[in-house]
Amino acid sequence: MPELPEVEALREYLDEHLAGRVVERVLPLAVSVLKTYDPPLTALEGQRAGATARHGKFLAVRIGDLHLVTHLARAGWLRWHDALPDRPPRPGKGPLALRVALEGGGGFDLTEAGTQKRLAVYVVRDPQEVPGIARLGPDPLAEEFDRDAFAALLAEERRQIKGVLRDQSVIAGIGNAYSDEILHAAKVSPFKLAASFDEEQVTHLYEAVRRTLREAVERAHGVAAGNLKAEKKSGLRVHGRDGEPCPVCGDTVRSVSFADSSLQYCPTCQTGGKPLADRRLSRLLK
Fold this sequence. Notes:
By secondary structure, the chain is α+β, with helices and mostly antiparallel strands. It has eight helices and ten strands.
């Protein structure tokens, strides 16, 4: 799933390549993709694109007086084309969900792999009309998101820290991959209760959040949209690396599987050398 660093890189890419261009046509090609109907997609046609904003994992492109908002979900992606294919796309065929064609040629596609169709597109007058944006917590890279604001969020939580970091209504933009990376950098168990952190641990985790995300954003800066997935994977230390050696201590990275996802961690770095039981609400094995 694209998370804050990749979505921020896509925002920068669209600001560079899309802003100032006029939309010629918008073609929805998957029944499930469009979540709003008023204003219609056709209201974007003939309008000039402005700046692109990021709200957590959402992208919001200003087009005329409206906003084209998308959430790429787990398997969605944005593919830019300097020249669109000559053959018109066929609805319901392949991963293509929506195409935006620009005057003068080129445009971009929104695609989604797999069978779980969760990619979402909205046309709204204000991004806050999108329910997922309206409920977002603070952006972890915002200047006003300081250590004390982070501490206040943790103090209210009786859940495991892994789930808190992924909850978009608590903190916007962090998903499964970067929560693993943050907790590894902070040397914290994913099952530690958020409210149990002492002052020093809160500070250490806050610094890990900011540092991990900033470094990922810097790595993604200037990377072409089509190469962002590979760049993300190359920069991950533990997520998706079950069975590989930890780059910090050399211990074997381990995994805990859930119904529709998994987490990865290093026992030596994060759990005092003890493996976590592979079930959702486990504590450390004794």
